[in-house]
Amino acid sequence: MAVEDIFEIVSPDHIRQLRDKRPRNLQALLRGIAKAMEDVCAAVDETGHPTAVFVTVANTTIRLLTRIAPFLMEDREQGVVRDILWRPGGYEPDAAGQAGAPVETGEQANGS
Question: Which residues contact 68 (CB under 8 A, 6 or more apart)?
Fold first, then answer.
């Protein structure tokens, strides 16, 4: 897909809606993108060179991340995004459907 296609198909409202109302779907999308990138890297490591298909997959995943990432960073303290990106195991809502407890950073764990 061309950059223009990605930006036309994946609107800011769609990304925000995934982030705010369907975080599990956003998590699944991001995991799918990461898996596709992992598959491309593994195939290139195995063959020594990328095929046209792998180049297309790599370009599409990078374009999707380029489109999605800015909207994930709009509110850096948002629990859902923090959990999806940084919590081991990803996003898991509590009983009220909210993101889990804050993730400790190395500085917090060391008492700094």
Answer: 10, 15, 29, 30
Residue 26: is its pLDDT beyond 80? yes
Question: pTM, whole model, 2 decimals?
Answer: 0.75
**Identity of the amino acid at 75:** D
Helices 23-47, 52-72: inter-axial angle, 10-degree rounding: 150
| 18 contacts: CB under 8 Å, gap ≥ 6 | 25, 26, 29
Instruction: Return the half-sphere exposure (C-beta side, CA atoms, 13 A cut-off) of residue 1.
Output: 14
What integer is the mean pLDDT of 36-65?
93
- The enclosing H or E element of 21 equals helix 12-21
